[in-house]
Model the fold of this input.
Amino acid sequence: MAIKEDRELMTQLAHSTNILRELTDNESLKLKNVLLKMLNDILSLCNKHNIDIILVGGSALGAIRHNGFIPWDDDLDLGLSRADYTKFIKLIESGALGSKYEFTYPNNKTDSKNLFLKIFLKGSKNVEITDITSPFPKGIFVDIFPIDYALPPGWKNKIKGFISNIWAYLSVSVLFYQYPNKEYENFMCSNNESAKRFRIRKLLGKLGSIIPHRLWAYHYDSFIQHKKTDFLTIPSGRKHYSGETLNANIFFPSKKAVFEGIQVNVPNNIDAYLKNLYGHYMDIPPIEKRERHYVIDFMVND
Done:
């Protein structure tokens, strides 16, 4: 899948150019401390309103394998059932999370940085290369993914998964075209393979820009939703729609775990969930296969 390959290519480019930089150990520690404070605020709001929020992706892996952050990783991924996701968004739109945060998510009124909810801490910086010219917040962020009912595994699921992946790819292409960014273009054109992919994205973005990115994201979010079934998926997750389609009881009801000393919820059958994402998830990957995050600018107030 092109989206997965693009992520891997970005990681390769980050190692081979000096446009991006890794956080220092001290910066990474500061970032993780901020993320834990954000997590506590989010958990407090969810507990108050009976919202079952769970760790997903690398954060779920970190909770089980490391009892916290994966040592070389520094982000935070959370998931909500679609019903709780909608409820949570209504709460934060009403100001329930407080004035120190801002957020973006797919809707038909405002543009969104991603195809899922992101919560940003005001007054901080964690600037990714794709964000330099965009109007979106550029602070330290937490990702919150909707967990949607899905078609049962089979050809219908694969067709919907294929369409959702193409839709997501086109949406991101339009986003890049809508907010042109010379630094990102230079980065992507630093080798022939990535330059070719960038030119394809730019062409698709131009063709698709007849529809604003805001509507691409909004209608994608509508498309991935489905009536109740015995299966759930995280369509915008690591393995996308079909790759993350699992029996609903693997996700919910959630179970308790500990993350950096904080009691959190994780998928009910965490073993099956992590095996689906990572295979032998307790094995520590070699250094060259460890996913890192690279930034243009970083700042957090002490």
